[in-house]
Amino acid sequence: MAAVLSGLSSRIAQAWQQGAGQFQGLDRRDPASWPCLPRLLLLSGLATAIAVALWMAVLSDLVAQLQDEQAQEARLKSEFSRKLPQALNLVALRRQKEQVQQQVTRLEQQLPGRSEIDGLLFDINQAGLGRNLHFDLFRPGQVAVKAYYAELPIALKVTGRYHDIGAFAADISQLSRIVTLNNLSVAPARDGLLVLEATAKTFRYLDPAEVEAQRKAAAPAATGAVAPPAAGGAAR
C-alpha cells in the first residue's frame, strides 16, 4: 500500500512538473506557439471574459427595463389614487352634471329669440307706462354678438315720481326674460318729479346662422389667422 501511494505521488509530482514546465519561456506575442495547456487556459479565460461581458450587457438591459417598469408602476399607482375618488363619486358627479344642465336649460329659456325681441321691447315700454312714467328716450342700440348669446342695449330716460320709478325697476326684474338696468342716474326734475337715465340690457340666444358665423370666426383665431370683422345687426 505504501509503495502504491509512493508511486502515485511520484507520478503526480512528475505531471505537475511537466505542466509547470509548459508555462516557462512563453512568447506573449505568439500564443499560437504555446504548448497545449497554456493555450487551453488562455482560451478558457477568453471564453469566460466574453461570457461575463455578454451577461453584463444583458443584465444592464434587464435592469433598465426593470427600472422603466417600476417607474410605470409608480405612475399607474398615482393615477389610480387620483381617479379613485372620482370613480367613487361618479354617481354624485353625474347628478351634479344633470343639475347644472337643468339650470342652463332654465336660463336659456329666459333668453328670447330674435323674433321675440320686439315683444320684449314692448313689455319694457308697457312696464313704464303702467307706472305712469313718461318716456323721454327709448332707443335700442347696436346688437353685440358674444360667443353664445347676443346683447341688446336700450338707452332709457323716463320721468316720474320716486315710488313709480322704483316700482318700474322692480317690474323690469320680474319680466319673464332677462333684463338688467345698468349705469343708472337719477336727477330731480320739475314739480317734484325725478328723471331716471339708464341702459337696459336684454339678451337673446343666437340662431343657427349666427352660431355658425361665430364658429367660423373663431376658427381663424385658433390658428392665428386674422378673421374679417363680423357685421353687426341693429335691433328694431
Summarize the structure.
The chain is α+β, with helices and mostly antiparallel strands. The chain has a domain at 114-220: Alpha-Beta Plaits (2-Layer Sandwich). The protein has helices at residues 2-21, 36-88, 90-109, 117-130, 162-173, 208-223, and strands at residues 134-140, 144-145, 149-160, 179-188, 194-205.
Description:
With 236 residues, this protein is an alpha+beta fold. The protein has a domain at 114-220: Alpha-Beta Plaits, CATH 3.30.70. Helix content is 57%, strand content 18%. The chain contains 6 helices and 5 strands; from the N terminus they run ααααβββαββα. The chain has helices at 2-21, 36-88, 90-109, 117-130, 162-173, 208-223, and strands at residues 134-140, 144-145, 149-160, 179-188, 194-205. Strands 1, 2, 3, 4 and 5 form a 5-stranded antiparallel β-sheet that branches. α4 packs antiparallel against α5. The longest helix is centred in the N-terminal third of the chain and has 53 residues, at 36-88. 8% of the residues are buried.
Which CATH architecture of one domain would you pick?
Answer: 2-Layer Sandwich
Our estimate of the beta-strand percent is 15-25%
Mean pLDDT score, rounded?
78
Tell me, briefly, the overall form: rod-shaped
* Structural class category: alpha+beta
> Mind telling me the CATH superfamily name of one domain?
Ribosomal protein S6/Translation elongation factor EF1B
Unreliable stretches, pLDDT < 50, 5 or more residues? 226-236
Question: What is the chain-wise order of helices and strands?
Answer: HHHHEEEHEEH
Span of the ends, CA to CA: 134 Å
How big is the Rg? 48 Å
What's the total helix number? 6
Would you state the CATH class of one domain?
Answer: Alpha Beta
Helix content range: 55-70%
Number of strands: 5
CATH names the topology of one domain as Alpha-Beta Plaits
